[in-house]
Design a protein that fits this description.
The protein is an alpha/beta fold. The chain is built from 29 helices and 19 strands. The longest helix has 22 residues.
Length: 701
């Protein structure tokens, strides 16, 4: 750009108000979001709130939790109740000046800023002198005493907006004596009365241990459930739902569903691609299930369903042979690829050589053979790291180095009779896996010692097997594209041939709406043989052009487009549901700490019902803990919740699989979900899994 032009453009940018408005990072949507005031639960319309303990909900408490968390293990579920005219002592205690810390922990989830806004608003309403400190970059901010005091200007800038940009986040854990000492020191320096931790299962686990450690220091710790995966759900021992889902789930599911719905529209327009959509969900398939309901994608895999799979044919064979067949229980990777191929082949048979498939990122964790590899490799890596000065991945930086180490373990097991986790059979099976997948299984674990499913191209693993098997089916003549009978007739008649005479020669189902080429006709050569055999042409004749055209149309071409949905959804601006939910969680967190609670998780009961029935509660974290393998050893952690395959919503999805597969002539049953909104009514104002489960509950009641 010439100097004179640059001056003109600079002048336009600096002086023209319309240009400034167009290029500004502030638009109508942003202003409307910031100004929107979320609805509040009825109890928060009162000037004060109190807590009411209840013995209604019972938990099965692990003995290790009793031992490790003695001061908070007997906490009860607490209902938040409104109170308009408390006595003087209550008012003074409730409104006494407080210093409150708040921190994000783990990945972002839409609605996090509203948790802070709700806490801040409640704190300032109770006493304008209350101070709220936001720790920067996650738990490291607590350890290193890095914080910012939150003000009206800061809070108002982020109301109803996505991300965790206000104070950022991090994945560190306060899990050593030194980190705990430094955290206590930070609390003393800031004279903190309470600390609110917004995070997932690990973060709320951390909150429980912090509550125990700081119990005698009179620093209250409150957890807030956050994860887009939806795997934080709390029930008591009787199955009563206390927390139906964490905030962020609804927005992420809608975000993914809108994008995947667009792919449904695209594939049914361009009719040449299978869109393979991998969605977040490392250990649970809640997002995939919700997306299935939102979009009616042709194939949706639910990991928990695969884990429950039983091969009845293998069981019957084993009974006849008089020997047990343990491989009959659980889905194998190869069998799963066959299931996918079956759907693809059936759609192709009715002219639909395209479609949309949804796969949860953690699908491999539900495949028996892969799960065994993951458990063994996690243990091997953890054991190596605990017994060496350097870590496994530093000492064995490339794949071949890692494989050589595993071979040595297998050799020791075989030749020296030493018990090792990795034996010769493991080594042989592992060597059959593609190199890129071997590398994925051997990659560095995350900070919690978990296998990083999001880093593995799950779709590539599955689609590799699918493509191989489809090629076999194509060679055998089982995988064909169905030809519209109308199109066939018009094409053949153009060549002045008789479609009625040719039909039975070419197709195995002549007379149907979509015609399938006979299995014996797999090439131009076999096509000619069929025509000669039925006296349509002579050996010396060429295949009629129109007939060859129909044959080529019957040969399917399996083309894929791969998509990953994760970071885009968790960075989305929150839906109306999450705006309101998160804001009320912030109000609940303040109510808990203002009434002296610690070691509690702020939650909303009856989320699955209409807003008027929402009930803010505090759930004791300690009784929810159980023992789980982490980094090769057993630790006390908050249990994740997987998809309940006996729930009404899953059963409904399972019942509709055949319809959504669309392996019949006619249009597919794709559904267009509503847009993400923060105001106004729409049918997606709650997760559809909630809606179906609640309707079923009412019907059975």
């Amino acid at each position: 750009m010439q100097g004179e032009d640059r001056i003109k453009i600079a002048h336009l940018i600096e002086k023209n108000p319309i240009v400034q408005k167009v290029i500004s990072n502030v638009n109508h949507e942003l202003v409307a979001r910031r100004e929107n005031k979320p609805s509040v639960c009825k109890v928060f319309l009162n000037e004060y709130t109190k807590l009411k303990d209840t013995d209604e909900f019972i938990f099965e408490i692990h003995k290790e939790a009793k031992k490790s968390l003695p001061d908070i293990i007997w906490n009860k579920v607490q209902f938040v109740e409104g109170i308009s005219s408390p006595d003087v002592h209550f008012r003074e205690k409730y409104s006494s000046p407080r210093n409150i810390g708040i921190v994000f922990s783990g990945g972002p989830a839409p609605g996090g800023h509203n948790v802070i806004a709700g806490l801040y608003d409640a704190a300032k309403k109770a006493n304008p002198e209350n101070r709220v400190f936001g720790f920067l970059l996650g738990p490291d901010g607590i350890v290193e005493n890095e914080y910012v005091e939150l003000t009206d200007i800061v809070i108002d800038k982020y109301r109803n907006l996505g991300g965790f940009g206000m104070i950022k986040t991090g994945r560190a854990k306060i899990d050593t004596k030194e980190k705990m000492r430094l955290s206590k020191e930070t609390c003393r320096k800031l004279n903190l009365d309470a600390l609110v931790i917004i995070g997932g299962d690990d973060s709320n686990t951390n909150a429980a241990f912090l509550a125990q450690e700081m119990y005698k220091d009179d620093v209250q710790i409150i957890g807030v459930p956050k994860t887009i995966d939806g795997d934080i759900q709390v029930r008591d021992s009787k199955g009563t739902v206390l927390c139906a889902i964490s905030f962020g789930f609804h927005t992420a599911a809608l975000s993914f569903a809108n994008s995947i719905s667009n792919l449904c529209t695209d594939c049914s327009s361009d009719i040449k691609y299978w869109h393979i959509c991998r969605v977040m969900g490392r250990v649970a398939s809640h997002l995939a299930l919700e997306v299935a309901l939102q979009t009616h994608a042709n194939i949706t895999l639910i990991g928990e369903d695969l884990a429950n799979y039983t091969d009845s044919r293998r069981i019957e064979k084993a009974k006849k042979d008089g020997t047990p067949d343990y491989t009959a229980y659980g889905m194998t990777l190869r069998h799963l690829s066959r299931v996918i191929c079956d759907g693809i082949v059936r759609r192709a048979a009715v002219g639909k050589n395209y479609g949309v498939m949804v796969i949860p990122e953690g699908i491999l964790e539900f495949i028996n053979e892969i799960q065994v590899f993951i458990i063994k490799l996690n243990t091997i890596i953890a054991q190596y790291n605990s017994t060496h000065d350097t870590d496994f991945h530093t000492n064995f930086p490339i794949l071949e180095d890692k494989l050589e180490y595993l071979r040595r373990l297998a050799k020791a097991s075989r030749e020296e009779g030493i018990f090792t986790i990795w034996n010769t059979r493991d080594d042989d099976l592992f060597n059959d896996i593609p190199a890129f997948f071997q590398e994925g299984l051997l990659m560095e674990r995350d900070s919690h010692g978990n296998f990083q499913f999001s880093q593995v191209e799950t779709d590539k693993v599955l689609m590799g097997l699918v493509k191989d098997y489809l090629n076999i089916l194509k060679e055998k003549g089982h995988y064909k594209t169905g030809i519209s009978k109308l199109y066939y007739g018009k094409t053949i008649e153009k060549g002045k041939l008789n479609p009625e005479m040719l039909g039975p020669v070419l197709f195995k189902n002549y007379g149907d709406e979509f015609l399938i080429m006979k299995e014996t006709i797999t090439s131009v050569k076999t096509l000619k043989q069929a025509l000669v055999r039925d006296n349509i042409i002579q050996e010396s004749d060429k295949i009629p052009e129109e007939v060859e055209k129909i044959f080529k149309k019957s040969i399917p071409s399996f083309k894929t487009q791969v998509h990953f949905y994760g970071y885009d959804g968790r960075g989305n601006d929150p839906s109306g549901f999450d705006c309101v939910y998160a804001y009320n969680l912030g109000l609940t967190a303040f109510s808990l700490l203002a009434n002296g609670a610690t070691g509690q998780m702020a939650a909303i009961k009856n989320l699955e019902k209409e807003f008027e029935k929402w009930e803010p509660i505090g759930i004791p974290i300690a009784p929810l803990m159980h023992i789980e393998e982490r980094k090769g050893k057993l630790d006390l952690v908050l249990e994740k919740t997987i998809v309940d395959v006996n729930s009404p919503c899953f059963k409904i999805v399972k019942e509709l699989r055949e319809k959504w597969l669309g392996a019949v002539a006619g249009e597919d049953d794709y559904r267009r979900p509503g847009p993400i909104r923060f105001v106004g009514k729409c049918e997606e104002e709650r997760p559809l899994t909630f809606v179906l489960n609640e309707i079923a509950k009412r019907s059975s009641g």
